[in-house]
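Consortium newsletter contribution from the modelling node. Members have asked for a concrete example of what our holo predictions look like. Here is one, prepared for the pyridoxal-5'-phosphate complex that several groups have been discussing at recent meetings.
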Amino acid sequence: MQTIIEPFRIKVVEPLQIRTRDEREAIVREAGFNMFLIPAADVLIDLLTDSGTGAMSSLQWAGVMQADESYAGSPSFFHFERVLRELTGFQHILPTHQGRASERILFELLGGAGLVVPSNAHFDTTRANIEHSGAEAVDLPIAEARHPRQQHPFKGNMDVAALQTLIGQVGPEKVPVVMCTVTSNGFGGQPVSLENLRAIRKVCDAFHVPLFLDACRFAENAWFIKQREQGQLHRPVREIVREMFDLADGATISAKKDGLVNTGGVLLVRDEALFQQASNLLILTEGYITYGGLAGRDLEAMAQGFQEVLDEGYLHYRIRSAEYVGEKLLAAGIQIIEPPGGHAIYLDAAAFCPHIPPSQFPGQALVVALYRHAGIRGVEIGSVMFGGGGHPPPDLELVRLAFPRRVYTQSHMDYVIEAIVEVFQQRDKLRGLRITAEPPALRHFTARFEEL
Ligand SMILES: Cc1ncc(COP(=O)(O)O)c(C=O)c1O
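And here is the predicted structure:
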């Protein structure tokens, strides 16, 4: 069949509030033209993030009801541990409240001044935790990743030659760990190939440096490997996932993505001594090792979510949805990061509104227009997010539309496409903005703007 349907039916519905255009105009002004300051109840289609915004299944909710809330040794923890052991092959599994808690523990133990942590592309919280430890976070994407129009089946790959050169230059004793983010959120949700992971592993082995995955979107990455990498089509996703984890010495995971839960995280380590140290820190700052700052019900929901996400019908629908939106936008002449990524579509805002210079925030102008026109909330990833504070303007002015898992249907996506195309047809009317108030750091969350 040509039509890829949502592989679920809906048992509980949540009404959407439809605001009028005049109401949205007042709301966006009241929020200082900042999407983070708009109450979620005033958003029709919320594509701000795919993190923690997914819908849980009936079996996950059943797990929530059955969960055991004992402080130590809860059966819900052992269920979670068993599922993660089977999935990843790791024996040492620590639950945390979300991805960045795993990162904080890892880099408190492995980071430090004078050290360097390379990656294909560090996610912001990973980078921030590395830098907080005093170490330097270095991105080593392949060259293709920096060009929106350039085609590559694995645009999330690491530049392995650059990795080898870097470790050779600084010395392996200065590199406590190499990270690899699957899929690469920083470069558009693009996947990393098995071939690339094997090559990174080889370099790590040669220098005796451990390799950790930032594995938030491990299942989406494995689906791309199955579809795009030579010789992988016949393999079950579960087997590909297992090979990805087998190549690593550890992993940090935000379960808010491919764990299909609203909160939760995981830290996986192979090394016994590191596991003991991580357990001690977990107890100090998160909670006992069998709950890690979560409730038993969260552990049950994760145990179920980490199995459901391997359903290939689900992954097909998931990845095809983003591709579908991307294809329609490209057909309408709208430039996106190509090819479409796993969890989001990134609009090239500089190409969308060439009359707005980076100093007047074309990405912000576009997110404002999408909200105003159709109640859609996206996020600017450009000069608002990365500029200011003396930083140079970023290479790209983007708007990210991230898709929550199992929340919106194809007709919602058709609405989104129609809205973007309509805004594109009137793009010369979009106006740049000026910041009227901003905090000293992370200004995109709270800055206020006015239109020029
Ligand atoms: C690649 C990646 N790593 C880490 C994180 C951090 O996870 P959390 O938000 O659960 O702390 C995210 C969240 O968006 C992410 O996309």
